[in-house]
Design goal:
This is DUF4142 domain-containing protein. InterPro entries: DUF4142, Ferritin-like. Keywords: Membrane, Signal, Transmembrane, Transmembrane helix. There is one protein chain. The chain is an all-alpha fold. The chain has a domain of 149 residues: Ferritin, CATH 1.20.1260.10. 65% of the residues lie in helices and 2% in strands. It is built from eight helices and two strands, in the order αββααααααα. Strands 1-2 form a two-stranded antiparallel sheet. A hairpin with a 2-residue loop joins β1 and β2. α2 runs antiparallel to α3, α2 packs parallel to α6 and α5 packs antiparallel against α6. The longest helix has 29 residues. The chain is globular, with a radius of gyration of 31 Å. The protein starts with a helix and ends in a 16-residue tail after the last helix. The C terminus is likely disordered.
């Protein structure tokens, strides 16, 4: 018979296996999965399009002006929150800039070394502003820029044939979403002034798709037990059995008390 230690060891191994096999085990918050970037290859393989090259250039340009903009936010803003946002975005862009330079070197893409004319103009606006005026210019300019590149990232991620650009697009997407969230946390983003999304094209089946999605969401059909769920159930059962075996073993090894006949009589005649 296996010892209780082996029972517990086996149960623990099953629990660990269940966690490792769960594709949604690592989450930014409950119910929200993080993309498994480690599953993407980065070998510079696949056709490289002009759109891919342009995308790498745009990522490089973003860092060339947002890094100095973040440094100015730490110096010219009086708001600790804006200073913190600028510090974080600048630091993250330094990391993203290394990613794009590494990708460009692998794919032989020529990258710019200074911001374009528009970006230099935005930096000039920030140099001429201080305090709350600076805060507004900084937040508005960066939020607008991130909003423009956001859909471009999705297009490249979905269409590129090159694995290095694909991974760069996925990483860039995570940076941009983080930066938009940080900028919006300032509380001074004018959402009403942001560009509106184009209306959906007629005849694309959007309404029918919405009905199908709604019907699926409201379905009362119970979801099947997944392999991960089964592993967790088995692990729980084994852990319970192991606990019972351990308790019985402890009881069987406890020292027995020797019976002694009581002295005297219990009942009076």
């Amino acid at each position: 018979m296996l010892s209780w230690r082996r029972w517990l060891s086996g149960a623990a191994m099953l629990v660990v296996a269940a966690v490792l096999l769960d594709p949604q085990g690592a989450r930014a918050e409950p119910g929200v999965p993080e993309p498994p970037n480690g599953l993407l290859s980065d070998r510079g393989r696949g056709d490289l399009s002009d759109a891919d090259r342009d995308f790498a250039t745009k990522v490089r340009l973003a860092g060339l002006w947002e890094i100095p903009a973040g440094e100015m936010a730490q110096q010219r803003s009086d708001d600790p929150r804006i200073q913190s946002i600028g510090r974080e975005i600048a630091a993250q862009h330094k990391i993203l800039d290394k990613f794009v330079r590494d990708a460009a070197k692998k794919l032989d893409i020529a990258l710019p070394d200074e911001p374009n004319a528009d970006q230099q103009g935005w930096l000039g606006e920030m140099r001429d502003a201080e305090g709350t005026d600076f805060d507004k210019v900084y937040i508005d300019r960066l939020r607008a820029a991130h909003g423009k590149i956001f859909p471009a990232i999705a297009t490249i991620r979905a269409s590129t044939r090159n694995d290095t650009i694909r991974k760069l697009a996925q990483r860039t997407n995570q940076f941009v979403m983080t930066h938009m969230t940080l900028l919006e946390s300032s509380g001074i983003v004018n959402f009403a002034a942001l560009p509106t999304a184009p209306p959906p094209a007629a005849g694309n089946g959007g309404s029918a798709n919405a009905v199908r999605v709604s019907a699926a969401a409201n379905s009362e059909t119970p979801s099947p037990i997944t392999g991960t769920s089964m592993l967790l159930i088995v692990a729980a059962v084994l852990a319970s059995v192991a606990g019972t075996v351990f308790a019985m073993r402890r009881l069987s090894q406890a020292p027995r008390r020797r019976y002694r006949r009581p002295q005297g009589r219990y009942f009076e005649s």
